[in-house]
Structure to design on (212 residues):
């Protein structure tokens, strides 16, 4: 799809709340890889999905500056809580500042460390999980979280298009481990009888999975 179509989609998607617009701008000005942030249209989709599910417990792997966490928190049920895990400690103070700005301190729990170490320490049953950390480990995270997701709960996986490198016509090099991992993971979910899945070619691709 052309950039023009994406722009049109943004123009016909509800605007970002002011706090998120500020975080989006700050992320672009002050971080090295601002493209990692979910952004306007995907952020509104995450918020919309969260409002549909009304989750009591949400888990995010890969917080970055906290943009998607704040979007997902918008649909939390009364008494609902969100846990998010980020590996890079340099991001912590900004995340906490925006969580406080959103009035979510106490309901949005930030864990600094490796997702594979922290997920097993969380003894919640998840209604909604967003996997958006190091893509080479998508399958590890999926297998870690799926037993903790309630039947009928959801797992969302970001960047499943991987810049378009997942399609057969792309000449992927044997050394490109990330692309091989994303391809293998997408194929695995497609064959996974434990779930239903929908592949949305939005932005860099978002895979929606429902545990049966
Ligand atoms: C794509 S960004 C997340 C974007 C964020 N979810 C959003 O939509 O705004 C990926 C983040 O995962 C973090 N990350 C990478 N490896 C990780 C790991 N093993 N455990 C936890 N976080 C990790 C990176 O530091 C980075 O901030």
């Amino acid at each position: 799809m052309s950039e023009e179509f994406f722009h049109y989609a943004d123009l016909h998607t509800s605007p970002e709340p002011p706090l998120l617009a500020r975080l989006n701008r700050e992320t672009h000005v002050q971080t090295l890889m601002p493209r990692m942030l979910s952004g306007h249209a995907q952020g509104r989709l995450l918020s919309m999905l969260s409002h549909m599910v009304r989750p009591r417990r949400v888990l995010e792997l890969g917080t970055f500056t906290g943009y998607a966490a704040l979007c997902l928190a918008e649909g939390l049920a009364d008494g609902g809580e969100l846990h998010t895990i980020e590996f890079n400690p340099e991001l912590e103070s900004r995340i906490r500042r925006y969580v406080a700005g959103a009035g979510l301190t106490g309901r949005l729990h930030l864990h600094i460390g490796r997702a594979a170490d922290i997920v097993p320490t969380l003894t919640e049953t998840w209604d909604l999980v967003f996997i958006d950390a190091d893509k080479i480990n998508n399958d590890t995270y999926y297998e870690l979280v799926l037993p903790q997701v309630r039947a009928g709960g959801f797992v969302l996986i970001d960047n499943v298009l991987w810049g378009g490198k997942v399609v057969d016509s792309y000449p992927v090099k044997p050394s490109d481990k990330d692309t091989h991992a994303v391809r293998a993971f997408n194929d695995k979910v497609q064959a996974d009888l434990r779930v239903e899945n929908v592949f949305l070619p939005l932005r860099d691709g978002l895979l929606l999975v429902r545990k049966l």
